[in-house]
Automatic annotation (TrEMBL):
The protein's name in its UniProt record: ERCC4 domain-containing protein
InterPro entries: ERCC4_domain (IPR006166), Restrct_endonuc-II-like (IPR011335)
GO terms assigned for molecular function: DNA binding; nuclease activity
Protein's GO biological process: DNA metabolic process
Signal peptide start and end residues: none
Gene3D superfamilies xref list: 3.40.50.10130
Pfam families reported in the protein's UniProt record: ERCC4
Residue ranges constituting the ERCC4 domain according to the UniProt record: 17-147
Organism the protein comes from: Salinadaptatus halalkaliphilus
């Protein structure tokens, strides 16, 4: 089984972290998924990693982090230290770690959806996203649905491959 097309910019295999709670399936997209342990992020492709056979862990130099709206709010509040450690692991990557949040920016700012009954103000979210974007090697992408999140991830993986081909 070939994991990537040599002359194509579209990855054929996406590595998905085994710890994903609600994984994307990339339905209707021309890729298959393979569940592995990733040291950073939730999705990547084989050629963007080194494999540590001793730990059976893949160490990416580009990956995508997926967060549901609730996961994102937890990551910036109760699990902030753990999430910041994840962001620090991507500090040396040549391109930012994309964090795809499965809720729109408008939903967060209007205190709707996952924000309902939360003890966090929208300005705290804006401040955290701004600070992390300046301090860490991270880029946040807010999308309205899980389906759009999967499509955004796939397109970011394709874009990264194109950028790497251009840089060579």
């Amino acid at each position: 089984m070939a994991e990537t097309r040599e002359t194509d910019s579209i990855p054929t295999t996406v590595l998905r972290d085994t710890r994903e709670q609600r994984p994307w399936g990339f339905d209707n997209l021309p890729v298959e998924t393979r569940d592995v342990t990733l040291s950073t992020g939730d999705y990547t492709v084989p050629e963007y990693c080194t494999h540590d056979s001793e730990l059976d862990t893949y160490r990416p130099h580009f990956a995508i982090e997926r967060k549901s709206g609730h996961d994102f709010l937890t990551a910036i509040t109760w699990e902030r230290d753990r999430f910041e450690r994840e962001l620090q692991r991507a500090a040396e990557w040549p391109h930012p770690l994309p964090v795809i949040v499965e809720t729109s920016w408008q939903t967060l700012l209007r205190n709707r959806g996952c924000m309902a009954r939360r003890d966090i103000h929208p300005t705290q979210i804006v401040g955290t996203v701004t600070a992390w974007s300046q301090h860490y090697n991270v880029a946040f992408h807010f999308v309205e649905t899980r389906k759009r999140g999967a499509l955004c991830a796939f397109l970011l993986l394709v874009r990264y491959r194109l950028v790497r081909q251009f840089e060579k």
